[in-house]
# Entry
Amino acid sequence: QQQVKQSPQSLIVQKGGISIINCAYENTAFDYFPWYQQFPGKGPALLIAIRPDVSEKKEGRFTISFNKSAKQFSLHIMDSQPGDSATYFCAASKGQAGTALIFGKGTTLSVSS
Amino acid sequence: GAVVSQHPSWVICKSGTSVKIECRSLDFQATTMFWYRQFPKQSLMLMATSNEGSKATYEQGVEKDKFLINHASLTLSTLTVTSAHPEDSSFYICSVPGLERVEQFFGPGTRLTVL
# Structure
């Protein structure tokens, strides 16, 4: 049973465009939802995270939108740049100290110049 | 966020040998660390939770006798792959909770290739 479903699997966006990646979760006990960026051969880097008490969080060009009733959240990358080309993972956890993350399958983003 | 290091960054070994991977939290004391495995072009799968001073908690399907975890101090956890086989070849990554505790910060990963 896949607890966090991520789509699309791959995405091609032109430079300057908006990249949108979607995730859906099943476990209503989840209350912490981070996004990670991973470059080939590197460990994932935390980009931005949200808790269900807010519907949107923005940090620079990255925005998380959260829909608690639909159990969905998404990552928007504004003004996408070639340097944003990487694999993005959404994740979820129960938000307690010492709780492991459950990851989506990942989205490979390519930003063409 | 937390700064996490792993050693070695890559290792090649012969089938049947054991390999030890270190994960260090450089700026936080961590009573809990996590070990993940990532196969090429796949997602991260949690292998085990490493607990300082006590036994690790393994995920279903992960052989605890094959993947030995020792959390000897608040800054160091080790993963030993015993009697490694080619199917154990993977990218092993550890993570450490940050100051907010719910956040997790990942190490750079260790690429294991078993010949």
